Amino acid sequence: xxxxxxxxxxxxxxxxxxAAGWAWLAKDRTTYxxxxxxxxxxxxKPGLPRDDVERILGDPLFEQDDPYPETWxxxxxxxxxxxxxFRIFQPSESVRFDxxxxxxxxxxxxxxxxxxIGDRNGVLRTLGSPTRRIAARARCAYYSRxxxxxxxxxRVVAYTADGLVxxxxxxxxxx
Length: 175
Known about the structure:
The protein is α+β, with helices and mostly antiparallel strands. It folds into two domains: 29-66 and 137-175, Beta-lactamase Inhibitory Protein, Chain:B, domain 1 (2-Layer Sandwich), CATH 3.30.1450; 67-136, no CATH class. It has five helices and ten strands. The strands form three sheets. The chain has a four-stranded antiparallel beta sheet, with no helix packed on it. It has a four-stranded antiparallel beta sheet with strand order 5-4-3-6, with helices on one face. A two-stranded antiparallel sheet has the order 1-8. Strand 9 (151-159) and strand 10 (165-174) form a beta hairpin. The longest helix is centred in the N-terminal third of the chain and has 22 residues, at 5-26.
């Protein structure tokens, strides 16, 4: 009878490796803006002026123009507050438009159905009304970023062209 010791040692090494990898992936690697507090972030509501947001939250880590002025989401089955890992198994469909209403990007399983369609009206005819419309935004202020590769908590304030909060984003993701 052969010894089972090598098999047991191999099994223990595999389990230890998987556990270490999972622990590494699960570790929060978020860097927040100086003075950022989640309790204050949740008080930021659409329509609030930019000056008030900066008085409440302080300066963001960085800002950038929103590359997609308008996004339509279809069949969004997982709430935005849940981890993105679940979205892998239940992907959302999205269509992103430029300021003139032309399609810039299509994500999800309807990409083939939208081939050759170029604007909002064509998307409405093909897919119907979206589950959710993300309003046009001019600029996004980022109050968090990943400190290294791995899981982090994104915290973003999106502003309209006239400097009012369009919406906030708070979700966990991997980078």
